[in-house]
Design goal:
Blueprint (H helix, E strand, L loop, with lengths): L9 H10 L7 H8 L5 H26 L6 H6 L3 H13 L4 E5 L5 H8 L3 E6 L2 H13 L6 E5 L12 E4 L4 E2 L2 E2 L10 H10 L3 E6 L13 E7 L2 E9 L6 E6 L3 E4 L14 E5 L1 H5 L3 H8 L2 E4 L2 E6 L8 E11 L2 H11 L1 E8 L6 H8 L5 E10 L2 E9 L3
Parallel strand pairs: 1-2, 1-4, 2-3, 4-7, 8-10, 16-17
Antiparallel strand pairs: 5-6, 7-9, 8-9, 10-11, 12-14, 12-15, 13-14, 15-18, 17-18
Helix pairs in contact: 1-3, 5-6
């Protein structure tokens, strides 16, 4: 799909409504039928857009995705709506009323900001992306709050806006870009733009950003949604030096208290698996302090404790067995317990979960979780199940 314009015509919109629920397996038959009454290019564009909308449901929900317009990269790289809404709420609660959204993509963040009552200038240099962002603001009834502009973000004057939001491109021709200075625009430029904003700024960066790359005058926040780490955000104008992990839905936020690394201790009755945002934010010590636990190994983010202390920042498991790593012993134990539903988790182990399942061949009516990890440096297996409060 190289041009959205035909899809924005009355004929295009009607065709989009007609093909919206097309099963991919039936596309050829549907296309053949529709080409008898519509131009072939328009039919192809409509079916392509229907596929993109179906893919976008997981990020935007069925109602919005069914009305929005997407590009392939836009579906892949846009912010999940729940994350964008959380970030927009933070800005609105800080009293921000206008934002320059730089590198706006198909407009997912601009939509969330406008729904929070914030006036938005959405800027991108790709004409097709700009067309999608403009169409999306219009489709969702937000055109009065969102101005979409095709431009290089480095040429845009943001002086008339309370804040800036920058989402640099982190993908190139060879895939993901891990060096923040190789982002487009580079992180250093985004930081300079953030520091010029009168009321603050938010820079979306990859969750794997090194902590040493975070400026001293920024707050760093790692965000997960449903247990999956989605992004990190550098905030300016909030709490310089603060580090937090935020879990959605909720939100629930864990702030760094600057605790030292927990001590390594023998496995207790419970194992706690911290949320990925907690791990990325280096806040495992805060979780260990909450549950009165320590680490199984100095280099691995598994916390162990003798008592159950439910926390939203980690999933607790009750451990029934602790063994040195040995496939034969594990297979015998699972057969003895009648375990046929086996969840394999690993951290600090080279063994692949599917490979282990093939070797132990679990059979039976019961379920168990096995953790492949290290205990005080030695390969180990911990068997258990989700803890019940």
């Amino acid at each position: 799909m190289n041009d959205l314009a035909p899809l924005l015509t009355p004929e295009g919109r009607a065709l989009l409504d007609e093909v919206r629920d097309t099963d991919p397996a039936q596309e050829l038959a549907v296309a053949t039928r529709l080409r008898r009454e519509h131009p072939a290019e328009l039919v192809s564009a409509a079916l392509g857009q229907a596929r993109l909308r179906q893919r976008a449901v997981v990020k935007f929900g069925a109602e919005d995705a069914g009305r929005m317009f997407f590009t392939p990269n836009g579906v892949e790289q846009s912010t999940r709506a729940s994350v964008a809404a959380y970030r927009a709420r933070r800005m609105a609660e800080a009293g921000i009323t206008s934002v320059a959204d730089l590198c706006c993509g198909i407009g997912g963040d601009a939509i969330a900001l406008a729904r929070a009552g914030i006036r938005v200038l959405a800027v991108d240099r790709d004409p097709q992306t700009v067309a999608a962002a403009r169409a999306n603001a219009d489709a969702l009834g937000l055109a009065g709050l969102v101005e979409v502009r095709e431009a290089d973000v480095t040429d845009v004057d943001t002086a008339g806006f309370d804040a800036v939001f920058v989402d640099p491109a982190r993908r190139g021709g060879r895939g993901r870009i891990f060096d923040p200075e190789a982002y487009s625009p580079p992180l250093s430029w985004a930081i300079s733009a953030a520091r010029r904003a009168p009321r603050g700024a938010a820079l979306k960066v990859a969750p794997g950003i090194p902590h040493e790359a975070v400026p001293e005058d920024a707050e760093a926040e790692w965000i997960s949604d449903g247990g999956d780490v989605k992004e990190a955000v550098l905030w300016f104008g909030t709490e310089p030096g603060a580090v937090r992990a935020t879990l959605l839905p909720g939100p629930r936020t864990l702030l760094s208290r600057g605790l030292t690394d927990p001590e390594v201790r023998p496995p207790g009755r419970y194992l706690y698996e911290p949320d990925g945002a907690v791990i990325r934010a280096h806040l495992v010590a805060e979780v260990a302090d909450q549950v009165g636990g320590g680490l199984l190994d100095a280099t691995i983010a598994y916390v162990t404790a003798d008592a159950l202390h439910p926390t939203p920042y980690a999933t607790a498991y009750e451990i029934t067995d602790h063994l040195p790593f040995n496939v034969k012993k594990l297979k015998a134990l699972l057969r003895e317990r009648g375990v046929g539903i086996l969840t394999v988790k690993k951290r600090g182990s080279a063994v692949e979960p599917e490979e282990l399942r093939r070797k132990v061949k679990p059979q039976g009516p019961h379920a168990a979780t096995v953790f492949l990890t290290r205990v005080a440096g030695a390969p180990a297996m911990l068997i258990g199940h989700p803890a019940r409060a």
